[in-house]
Amino acid sequence: MRKDLKTRIRVPRESLSTRIGALELGKAKAYADFIREGDPDGPVPCWGAITKRFVEAFATDTERLAVLDQLIAEGDRRPLFLFLDTSRKRPKLLEALCARVGELPVSVQRALVAMPEAATYVAASLERLDPSARLVWDGGEDSKRAERELLAGRVGELMAFQYFVPDTIDPRQEPPSKRVAAPTDGDAPGEGGQPR
Fold this sequence. Notes:
Blueprint: H1 12-21, H2 26-37, H3 47-57, H4 61-74, H5 77-86, H6 91-99, H7 106-114, H8 119-123, H9 131-138, H10 140-159
Helix pairs in contact: 1-2, 1-4, 2-3, 4-6, 5-7, 5-10, 7-9, 7-10, 9-10
Protein backbone atom coordinates (compact mmCIF):
# COMPACT_ATOMS: atom_id res chain seq x y z
CA MET A 1 0.00 0.00 0.00
CA ARG A 2 1.28 3.45 -0.85
CA LYS A 3 2.10 5.63 2.15
CA ASP A 4 1.05 8.82 0.38
CA LEU A 5 -2.49 7.48 -0.16
CA LYS A 6 -4.83 9.20 2.26
CA THR A 7 -8.39 8.26 2.95
CA ARG A 8 -10.73 11.19 3.33
CA ILE A 9 -12.88 10.76 6.37
CA ARG A 10 -16.21 12.51 6.01
CA VAL A 11 -17.10 14.62 9.02
CA PRO A 12 -20.88 15.17 8.99
CA ARG A 13 -20.74 18.56 10.72
CA GLU A 14 -18.20 19.88 8.19
CA SER A 15 -19.84 18.27 5.20
CA LEU A 16 -23.35 19.45 6.06
CA SER A 17 -22.25 22.98 6.90
CA THR A 18 -20.31 23.19 3.61
CA ARG A 19 -23.35 22.09 1.61
CA ILE A 20 -25.71 24.51 3.33
CA GLY A 21 -23.19 27.36 3.22
CA ALA A 22 -23.04 27.02 -0.56
CA LEU A 23 -26.75 27.86 -0.92
CA GLU A 24 -27.53 31.24 -2.38
CA LEU A 25 -29.56 32.32 0.62
CA GLY A 26 -28.35 35.13 2.84
CA LYS A 27 -29.14 33.11 5.96
CA ALA A 28 -27.38 29.98 4.76
CA LYS A 29 -23.81 31.08 5.48
CA ALA A 30 -24.60 32.18 9.04
CA TYR A 31 -26.47 28.92 9.66
CA ALA A 32 -23.60 26.88 8.19
CA ASP A 33 -21.14 28.70 10.44
CA PHE A 34 -23.37 27.94 13.43
CA ILE A 35 -23.46 24.23 12.55
CA ARG A 36 -19.69 24.15 12.25
CA GLU A 37 -18.64 26.30 15.20
CA GLY A 38 -21.62 27.62 17.14
CA ASP A 39 -21.98 31.27 18.02
CA PRO A 40 -18.83 33.37 18.46
CA ASP A 41 -17.32 32.56 21.85
CA GLY A 42 -20.12 30.05 22.42
CA PRO A 43 -20.19 26.27 22.76
CA VAL A 44 -20.39 23.89 19.80
CA PRO A 45 -24.04 23.05 19.09
CA CYS A 46 -25.60 19.59 19.11
CA TRP A 47 -28.66 18.60 17.06
CA GLY A 48 -31.08 20.26 19.48
CA ALA A 49 -29.57 23.74 19.04
CA ILE A 50 -28.93 23.16 15.33
CA THR A 51 -32.61 22.31 14.81
CA LYS A 52 -33.85 25.21 16.91
CA ARG A 53 -31.68 27.61 14.89
CA PHE A 54 -32.94 26.03 11.65
CA VAL A 55 -36.56 26.65 12.62
CA GLU A 56 -35.75 30.26 13.54
CA ALA A 57 -33.58 31.02 10.51
CA PHE A 58 -35.57 29.37 7.73
CA ALA A 59 -39.16 30.46 8.22
CA THR A 60 -40.55 29.94 4.72
CA ASP A 61 -41.23 26.72 2.88
CA THR A 62 -39.13 27.93 -0.06
CA GLU A 63 -36.07 28.41 2.17
CA ARG A 64 -36.57 25.05 3.83
CA LEU A 65 -36.93 23.32 0.45
CA ALA A 66 -33.53 24.71 -0.57
CA VAL A 67 -32.05 23.23 2.60
CA LEU A 68 -33.89 19.93 2.01
CA ASP A 69 -31.99 19.47 -1.26
CA GLN A 70 -28.74 19.65 0.71
CA LEU A 71 -29.98 17.32 3.45
CA ILE A 72 -30.95 14.70 0.88
CA ALA A 73 -27.60 15.07 -0.89
CA GLU A 74 -25.83 14.66 2.47
CA GLY A 75 -27.78 11.48 3.23
CA ASP A 76 -27.40 11.70 7.02
CA ARG A 77 -30.58 10.39 8.65
CA ARG A 78 -30.35 12.59 11.74
CA PRO A 79 -31.06 15.98 10.11
CA LEU A 80 -33.62 14.32 7.84
CA PHE A 81 -35.54 12.96 10.86
CA LEU A 82 -35.47 16.43 12.41
CA PHE A 83 -36.56 18.06 9.13
CA LEU A 84 -39.43 15.59 8.90
CA ASP A 85 -40.48 16.28 12.48
CA THR A 86 -40.41 20.07 12.02
CA SER A 87 -42.40 19.75 8.76
CA ARG A 88 -45.48 18.05 10.21
CA LYS A 89 -47.68 21.12 9.77
CA ARG A 90 -46.24 22.20 6.43
CA PRO A 91 -48.09 20.43 3.62
CA LYS A 92 -45.80 21.81 0.91
CA LEU A 93 -42.77 20.28 2.64
CA LEU A 94 -44.49 16.94 3.22
CA GLU A 95 -45.48 16.86 -0.45
CA ALA A 96 -41.86 17.59 -1.46
CA LEU A 97 -40.57 14.84 0.82
CA CYS A 98 -43.01 12.35 -0.70
CA ALA A 99 -42.13 13.43 -4.23
CA ARG A 100 -38.50 12.56 -3.46
CA VAL A 101 -39.21 9.60 -1.20
CA GLY A 102 -37.02 7.26 -3.28
CA GLU A 103 -33.99 9.44 -2.44
CA LEU A 104 -34.55 9.19 1.31
CA PRO A 105 -32.92 6.58 3.57
CA VAL A 106 -35.27 3.69 4.31
CA SER A 107 -35.67 4.60 7.99
CA VAL A 108 -36.77 8.12 7.00
CA GLN A 109 -39.19 6.70 4.42
CA ARG A 110 -40.71 4.49 7.12
CA ALA A 111 -41.18 7.47 9.43
CA LEU A 112 -42.70 9.55 6.63
CA VAL A 113 -45.28 6.95 5.61
CA ALA A 114 -46.35 6.60 9.25
CA MET A 115 -47.24 10.29 9.57
CA PRO A 116 -50.99 10.90 9.21
CA GLU A 117 -50.24 14.45 8.02
CA ALA A 118 -48.45 13.03 4.97
CA ALA A 119 -50.95 10.28 4.06
CA THR A 120 -52.38 12.01 0.97
CA TYR A 121 -48.91 12.61 -0.47
CA VAL A 122 -47.64 9.14 0.43
CA ALA A 123 -50.59 7.56 -1.40
CA ALA A 124 -49.42 9.30 -4.58
CA SER A 125 -45.84 8.02 -4.10
CA LEU A 126 -46.33 4.34 -3.31
CA GLU A 127 -44.43 3.05 -6.34
CA ARG A 128 -41.25 4.86 -5.20
CA LEU A 129 -41.24 3.44 -1.66
CA ASP A 130 -38.71 0.93 -0.45
CA PRO A 131 -40.43 -2.43 0.26
CA SER A 132 -39.78 -1.95 3.99
CA ALA A 133 -41.57 1.42 3.97
CA ARG A 134 -44.37 -0.09 1.92
CA LEU A 135 -44.84 -2.70 4.66
CA VAL A 136 -45.37 0.09 7.18
CA TRP A 137 -47.92 1.72 4.86
CA ASP A 138 -49.74 -1.55 4.21
CA GLY A 139 -49.43 -2.72 7.83
CA GLY A 140 -52.27 -0.61 9.11
CA GLU A 141 -52.52 1.69 12.08
CA ASP A 142 -50.58 -0.53 14.51
CA SER A 143 -47.59 -0.60 12.19
CA LYS A 144 -47.73 3.15 11.65
CA ARG A 145 -48.12 3.85 15.36
CA ALA A 146 -45.04 1.77 16.14
CA GLU A 147 -43.05 3.68 13.51
CA ARG A 148 -44.27 7.03 14.88
CA GLU A 149 -43.06 5.94 18.33
CA LEU A 150 -39.64 5.14 16.87
CA LEU A 151 -39.52 8.56 15.23
CA ALA A 152 -40.54 10.28 18.47
CA GLY A 153 -37.75 8.41 20.29
CA ARG A 154 -35.14 9.32 17.68
CA VAL A 155 -36.18 12.97 17.64
CA GLY A 156 -36.23 13.05 21.44
CA GLU A 157 -32.69 11.69 21.61
CA LEU A 158 -31.43 14.15 19.00
CA MET A 159 -33.13 17.15 20.59
CA ALA A 160 -32.11 16.22 24.15
CA PHE A 161 -28.73 17.90 23.91
CA GLN A 162 -28.43 21.50 22.82
CA TYR A 163 -24.65 21.94 23.13
CA PHE A 164 -21.55 19.81 23.66
CA VAL A 165 -20.37 19.84 27.24
CA PRO A 166 -16.62 19.41 27.59
CA ASP A 167 -15.64 16.48 29.75
CA THR A 168 -12.00 17.49 30.05
CA ILE A 169 -12.46 19.83 33.01
CA ASP A 170 -10.77 18.60 36.15
CA PRO A 171 -13.61 18.36 38.70
CA ARG A 172 -11.31 19.89 41.33
CA GLN A 173 -11.10 23.03 39.16
CA GLU A 174 -14.85 23.48 38.81
CA PRO A 175 -16.46 26.37 40.66
CA PRO A 176 -17.78 25.23 44.08
CA SER A 177 -21.40 25.82 43.02
CA LYS A 178 -21.11 23.07 40.43
CA ARG A 179 -19.09 20.63 42.49
CA VAL A 180 -20.91 17.98 44.49
CA ALA A 181 -19.26 17.16 47.77
CA ALA A 182 -18.71 13.44 48.10
CA PRO A 183 -16.94 11.68 50.93
CA THR A 184 -13.63 10.06 50.16
CA ASP A 185 -12.15 7.06 51.93
CA GLY A 186 -10.28 9.30 54.33
CA ASP A 187 -13.17 11.46 55.50
CA ALA A 188 -16.18 9.16 55.22
CA PRO A 189 -18.54 9.52 58.16
CA GLY A 190 -18.61 6.81 60.79
CA GLU A 191 -21.68 5.27 62.39
CA GLY A 192 -24.59 7.63 62.85
CA GLY A 193 -23.12 10.08 60.33
CA GLN A 194 -20.49 11.30 62.80
CA PRO A 195 -16.92 11.96 61.62
CA ARG A 196 -14.43 9.25 62.55
